[in-house]
Structures are given as structure tokens and as C-alpha cells.
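Note to self: keep these together.
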Amino acid sequence: GENVIRITASDDVGNLSSVERVVHIKTAPPALGINLTEGQRFNTPVIQLSGTTDPGTTILVNRRVVPVGQKGDFSIALNLSEGENIVEVIARDQAGNTTTLNRVVSYAPPVPPSAFSRMVRNLSEIPLGMLGTGLGVVLLGLFLLMLRRQQPVVLGLATEQQAFAPTRPRGQQRLTIYLELNREASVTLQVLDERGTRQAVLVRNRRRSARRHRFFWDGYNLQGEPVSPGRYTIQASARALPSQVVSAVQVQVRPLIQIGALETPQETIENAEVVQTSPPAPSEPPPVRESEEG
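Structure:
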């Protein structure tokens, strides 16, 4: 309410001087109302936010000052990002009292009709008398073909072992990978390290039929060297219009195993007959490309 503050001063001879000030104390927060509700959904990226408050109040929308009319009304256009958006409205009166409203709204752009939906609509417009003709049969065949292509691709990925070790010579141990498709799709299968760097590509953008496929990885990278011990991700992607799916599993790669490098006991060496032999010819390294079995 209203308060009067009076200050009086006097000197040594009794002269007086006084000053009065009227101040208003307000502790109640300002009124605030807006036209947005919690969880409201929009299909346009720009919306109009409006509201009312007490006259003389300052309004901030997402930290941006908005002009307030003489009757306390205000309005502002807001740009929304796709997905959820947080709208914060703060009303602050001259005494420093504040009222805050927060609303979470979402924006989702309208989805254009798919080719399948357009074909269904077009078929519904065909006269019934034409369905028995050759043209009707062709249109029905196209409809069934489109219906099949609209089926989303489903990808299953698994490994036979959770851990394995590369060997030298190469290929003595291999990781078995199973990939299953519900429909024909273009498949890519690769191995990534913990930083997401590609280490091996087992198949790249190749068509595979709707069945269970088996692939092998021997633990060697694109340079033909055994990978370092650690965790690796087997990542598969399958693309068949109108969808693309990605699946991944992790495996543990153990240290390299040297096969045939065991030391001969010392006593055997001492008793063995020394035979001079020529060193064996180096064997040809296996190809980098991994094998697949159907």
C-alpha cells in the first residue's frame, strides 16, 4: 500500500527542515496469462504467442523483451524448431516482483502423402467397369507391387561368439556373424573400433535376399594387419525403400595368437640330430576380402 516517509533535520539554533516522500509497497507478483498450453502441438514453424499482464509490467519471452500495451496485452511471433520447444514467459513489475510461466510445445512438419497413399487414392477413383479390363489388371498389379515395396525392412544381427582372437597365420580363428532380412535389401556390414573408425568392411552396399546370411571376420583390418585388443562394434545397415535400418553388436577382440611358434624343449634340442634344411618358401597371404556363406 501507500506509505509516507518524513525526514526532519534541525540545526544548533533550532531551524528545522523536513522532506516527505510517498512510497508504494507491492509484494504480490503480477498477473500473467498466455495462449499456450502444456504439450501443445503445431504443424507450422511459426506461431503467435499472446497474453495479458498488469499495465506497466515488463514481459520477457525466452529472454527477449516484448512491448506491453496500455491495457497489459502483448503479442510476439515465435519460431519453432522441429521437435520439442521450451517457451519461457517472465512478467516483472516495477517493484521487482516476478511471475514465470513455462510451456513445452512441439513442432512436427506435415508428412507428405506416400506413393502408396497416392496410388490407393488413384485406384479408388477408377470406375468399377475398368477393373476387369487389361488396364485394370495392370493397375492392380502395380498396386500389389507398390504394397510389397512399402513393407519396412527388418534387420537382425548376432554373433556366434562374444570374444575371439586373431591368429598368425591368418584365418585360424574367425568370428561368425549372422545377418537376417525379412525382404531383399542393400546391405553394408563393417567393423568399427571404440572411436568409430572403420577397421574392416565385410560387405558394402550389396543386394541380399530375404533369409539368414552368414559372414566371417578374422580380426584383420583394411591394411591386412591384426587389430589391437579391445572392444569392436559390428555394424550392419539394410536399405530397401522406403526405409533404412541399422543394427550393431559388440565383440571383444583378444591379443593375437601365434600358432606354431611354441619353443622346443632344451633337452630335445641337445639330443636332436642336426639336419641342414633350406627355409620354407613364404606362403601367400590370404585376400583381404572376407568370405560369406549362404
